[in-house]
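Notes from the 1:1 (GR / supervisor)

We went over the backlog. Supervisor wanted to see one worked example end to end before approving the batch request, so GR pasted a single chain during the call. The sequence is below; no edits were made to it. Supervisor asked that the structure be written out right there so they could see what the output format looks like.
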Amino acid sequence: MIASDPYSRYLPVEPSLVDWGIYVLDAGFTCVPPGAIYPSGEHPDGYLFSWEQGRVLDEYQIVYLSRGKGILENEKQGRQPVDSGDLMLLRPGIWHRYRPLAEIGWDETWIGFQGEYAHQLIVKFFAADKALLHVGYDEELLRKLQYVIRLMQEAPPGFRQMIAGETVAALARIRALDMQADTTRHANEEKMNRARYQLLRHATQEVDLVALAAGLGLSYSRFRSLFREHTGSSPRSYQIDICINRAKELLRGSERNINEIAEMLGFSSVYYFSRLFRQRTGQTPSAFRKKSEDES
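Structure output shown during the call:
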């Protein structure tokens, strides 16, 4: 493990390394506490940037966040929130800027590299439309990045070739983590689609959400968290919204009275139904029906 003190080093290009196919140009670690000025200004002109101007690099960089939150913006994907466990993959020739949230800060570890082999790896194995990889916090990846920095600090004979090899290993780990994350995201999306279908199908009934979560292979707390992440609401609130939307259709297109509609949709009382309807639409059911009739 390396020390927690900030460290960075920038290396020249050597002709023999160009033939190697991948060569590391810079690497470092920075712990940015809350309220700190960012970037610090302790970098060469070609790397230093301001939030107002951003920058364009002549190399690839991987910037891994092991703590904190922030923002990444580039000319291709726009602005994206960055969280602990995310990795920024910065490409040469692409304008970008990033910074931690002032009230939180972050810990970043980075490696900058170039070379024909490096270019082939990035182009073939990392999607061009992804500058932010949600690989998660991973001790093995962090150790690989830290080992590169330690070799740069100690500079043993042949360390330029050694850090090139370690960078390839780090890229392989990042690729594996990204693939795992994609698989998990797809599996979770499928589970949430199944959950939404069940809530839609049984919208007027009391759904056992704990049993629904268990049927999807999830704890209730994990299910609820994933459901909110995918839909923006809790499962119960989502089910109520389905019923309110059905109530709107019935108020517009049927002669049923409000008591009948409340009973059809499984509400315990017309008063509870009317209160929820007003909370979500800003109108009582009677006012909504009248307005719909006036507009037709």
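Supervisor's comment: The first strand starts at residue 7 and ends at 10.
Batch request approved.
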